[in-house]
Write a structure and sequence with these properties.
Elements (H helix, E strand, L loop, with lengths): L1 E7 L6 H10 L4 E7 L7 H11 L4 E5 L3 E3 L4 H8 L5 E5 L1 E3 L1 E2 L12 E9 L2 E7 L8 E4 L1 E2 L3 E5 L19 H11 L3 E5 L4 E3 L5 H4 L1 H14 L6 E2 L7 H14 L2 H6 L1 H21 L1
Parallel strand pairs: 1-2, 1-3, 5-13, 8-14
Antiparallel strand pairs: 3-12, 4-14, 5-12, 6-8, 6-11, 7-15, 8-9, 10-13
Length: 279
């Protein structure tokens, strides 16, 4: 009943992940691996290809650096979708996005429960202040390491490979599309995932990240700021936060500023020395 779609940097995913899925999912499933070893796909086009191949009503878009740690987690996911107002379920996300360009992890209102494995050290990430006694909670954007979406929604939504390139902001964009279709974006705390996270921005390029960031906020500017799942937070607090983010961070203005250009010029010799040391 669940089609798992994974875009792999290799010709196939690891045997350990395959076995982990089979042993833990608990429901009928299929695995669709998009071979991106030749870098022919963006994450957007890869996932669209996966949607075209999928046969089950619930789709799971997952990274290849995870392991599921909840037994029969597939039943938990399907149970959440019994609520027909829910269009997307993730594991970690933000309840608030301002009008200005910031990534979702910079939000002051985040909820998540997952295991982060960083260089062999497993850290349990708890940010459940807003869950209270619930096992599912509304957000505005989810992290893309694992997303569940109703397949029927792809009649009206898609991973926007026409507007974006590369491997960033696909998760936030698809969440906004679900919300624009008057459906809920949620995160749950009854599917525990271990994420072997690593900071690979240097490899794939910060430039691509910031380009997609600018595209995302231009695309959705008329919907922002937006908040969900924090109804007990006074509106004036959110308004103030939107202003604070605007004062503190505007990537486009920062990159064009004289101070930024002088700083880059001053740091250029240091970057040269670091490259020489690495080689």
């Amino acid at each position: 009943m669940i089609s798992l779609i994974i875009c792999s940097r290799h010709s196939d995913i690891s045997q350990s992940l395959k076995e982990n899925i089979v042993e833990t999912i608990g429901v009928e499933s299929e695995l669709i691996v998009i071979d991106n070893s030749s870098n022919n796909h963006s994450i957007f086009s890869a996932y669209n290809e996966g949607v075209r191949r999928a046969k089950y009503p619930y789709l799971c878009f997952a990274h290849e650096d995870i392991l599921f740690r909840t037994q029969d987690w597939g039943w938990n996911v399907i149970k959440h979708f019994e609520d027909t107002t829910i269009g997307l379920v993730g594991m970690a996300g933000t309840h608030f996005l301002p009008k200005v360009p910031v990534y979702w992890t910079h939000s002051p209102f985040i909820s998540e429960h997952n295991l982060t494995n960083d260089n062999g050290q497993v850290i349990e990430c708890f940010k459940l202040d807003f869950f209270k006694d619930k096992d599912i909670l509304d957000v505005v954007a989810c992290d893309g390491f694992c997303l569940f979406i109703r397949k029927e929604l792809f009649k009206t939504i898609f991973f926007d490979e026409k507007t974006f390139t590369g491997f960033h902001y696909y998760d936030m964009d698809i969440c906004m599309q679900v919300l624009a279709n008057n459906l809920r974006v949620c995160i749950c705390n009854d599917v525990l995932i271990e994420h072997f996270w690593s900071d690979n921005y240097n490899k794939i390029g910060l430039k691509s990240f910031y380009l997609n960031q600018e595209v995302f906020f231009n695309k959705w500017k008329n919907y922002l700021p937006i908040s969900r799942g924090i109804n007990d937070i006074p509106s004036y607090v959110l308004d103030r936060l939107n202003g604070v983010f605007g004062d503190a961070y505007d990537a486009k203005k920062v990159r064009k500023s004289k101070a930024y250009k002088i700083g880059r010029f001053m740091l250029a010799p240091l970057k040269f020395l670091l490259r020489a040391k690495e080689s």
